[in-house]
Inverse folding.
């Protein structure tokens, strides 16, 4: 089925999107303690947004997060990877045109983003 | 204590991994808390790893695909996503000091009548090669000389109230696909809308770019040509004298006058040798450029000032040629416009990503950016 957000040229070769693909990357450093429900609430409000949750190692409540954020893609990086490298790795694997990075180390000015990672 | 509004920092980037990491790290190292600003990087169709590098530091990364659309277009896309009351534009080759962003924010918070504030280039660039030192000092000289009111909104690092910015139609992405003159044009538009633009010499940034003779001449050529063609030299001269092309060209009329007098006198004395005439001509150029050379001597010493002489004459010659070419193009062809395909897409009003460059509405209600991406 044709995606209504995509435009195709007459010969069908060139494909252009009407709207940008939006992605959210949630960066979860190894030692970060998070509340799965608050993250799930923040990232599942728009079903057109592609979500990647990038973790270093295996956070203790990862299984709970997997259950609550079913639509998310999980990127499990080796233990010990720095948050910066984790962000870079997730970015390389995210196709979005507009990519929002949520990182608990950086306290966001926007309350909704801040609450999600506490 | 003045309560500071939230700031959105927009950094456009095109194949700039060489300096982007330093520029973004400096922003993150700022004395503003991360809850006082958001960092948006707009990657303008880079073929290198700019977007990946940006992801290490940014809150939001915008990836533009296809052809390069230019810094004006990229900054406008960043502002469409910005949520801060104030928007700061930082170039990917500019390193802010720890207090730069906070100082700009505080300045705007304390001066209700000012809508945009611009930092100036510091006198010491990151690159130590001679051309970078010369060019950086020249830009610093011009910006310092003309700072205050009626200044260029230097696109290296500046901050503007978001509503004022969108109210005057944002950067002119239609006319300025390359170069750095969109800041000059925007400042002029802000000023004609009775909004104040201020260049603050106490707020400075360090240039991370490495200049060569070739890249410097290209920059002068592009700026000069676009300045004369798209803005009209005299019109802009009145509004924003700090642009580096003005710094280069301000001495030109008097230099030409001196050289003409020398040449005219020489024509009545056939015995005078060519060397004497050339010496007199160089002397004339030296006299009219004395403030610049004196500035170089004070900052880097006599030898540096002496070495800068041929480079400065070359820069002035390129600037003069570029301005003349721009005037000719303006008179014969008119303002620069995008290619026919872009104009056609804009005419149809095609909704696509990345969006077709928007034509700025002149003398009419300004179109505000859509908030659908918020």
């Amino acid at each position: 089925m044709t995606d209504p957000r995509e435009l195709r040229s007459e010969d069908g070769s060139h494909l252009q999107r009407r709207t940008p693909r939006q992605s959210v990357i949630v960066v979860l450093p190894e030692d970060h303690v998070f509340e799965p429900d608050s993250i799930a609430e923040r990232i599942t409000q728009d079903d057109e947004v592609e979500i990647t949750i990038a973790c270093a190692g295996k956070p203790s409540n990862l299984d709970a997060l997997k259950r609550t954020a079913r639509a998310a893609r999980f990127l499990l990086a080796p233990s010990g990877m720095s948050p910066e490298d984790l962000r870079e790795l997730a970015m390389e694997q995210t196709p979005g045109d507009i990519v929002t990075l949520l990182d608990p180390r950086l306290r966001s000015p926007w309350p909704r983003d801040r609450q999600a990672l506490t | 204590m003045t309560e500071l509004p939230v700031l959105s920092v927009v950094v456009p980037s095109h194949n700039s991994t060489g300096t982007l990491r330093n520029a973004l790290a400096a922003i993150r190292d700022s004395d503003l808390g991360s809850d006082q600003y958001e960092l948006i990087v707009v990657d303008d169709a880079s073929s290198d790893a700019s977007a990946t590098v940006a992801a290490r530091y940014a809150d939001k990364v915008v990836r533009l695909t296809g052809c390069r659309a230019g810094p004006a277009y990229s900054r406008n896309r960043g502002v469409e996503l910005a949520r801060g009351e104030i928007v700061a534009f930082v170039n990917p080759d500019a390193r802010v000091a720890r207090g730069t962003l906070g100082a700009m924010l505080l300045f705007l918070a304390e001066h209700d009548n000012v809508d945009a504030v611009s930092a100036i280039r510091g006198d010491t660039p990151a690159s130590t090669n001679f051309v970078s030192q010369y060019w950086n000092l020249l830009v610093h000289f011009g910006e310092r000389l003309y700072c205050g009111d009626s200044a260029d909104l230097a696109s290296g690092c500046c901050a503007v109230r978001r509503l004022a910015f969108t109210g005057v139609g944002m950067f002119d992405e239609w006319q300025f696909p390359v170069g750095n003159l969109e800041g000059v044009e925007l400042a002029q538009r802000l000023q004609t809308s009775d909004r104040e633009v201020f260049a603050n010499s106490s707020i400075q940034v360090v240039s991370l770019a490495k200049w060569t003779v070739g890249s410097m001449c290209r920059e002068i050529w592009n700026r000069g040509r676009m300045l004369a063609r798209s803005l009209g030299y005299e019109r802009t001269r009145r509004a924003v004298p700090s642009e580096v092309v003005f710094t280069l060209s301000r001495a030109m009329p008097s230099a030409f006058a001196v050289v003409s007098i020398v040449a005219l006198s020489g024509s009545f004395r056939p015995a005078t040798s060519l060397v004497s005439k050339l010496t007199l001509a160089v002397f004339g150029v030296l006299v009219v450029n004395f403030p610049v050379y004196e500035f170089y001597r004070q900052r880097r010493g006599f030898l540096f000032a002496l070495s800068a002489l041929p480079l400065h004459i070359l820069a002035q010659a390129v600037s003069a040629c570029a301005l003349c070419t721009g005037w000719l193009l303006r008179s014969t062809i008119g303002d620069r416009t995008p290619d026919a395909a872009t104009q056609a897409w804009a005419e149809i009003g095609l909704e696509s990503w990345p969006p077709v460059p928007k034509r700025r509405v002149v003398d009419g209600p300004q179109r505000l950016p859509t908030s659908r991406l918020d």
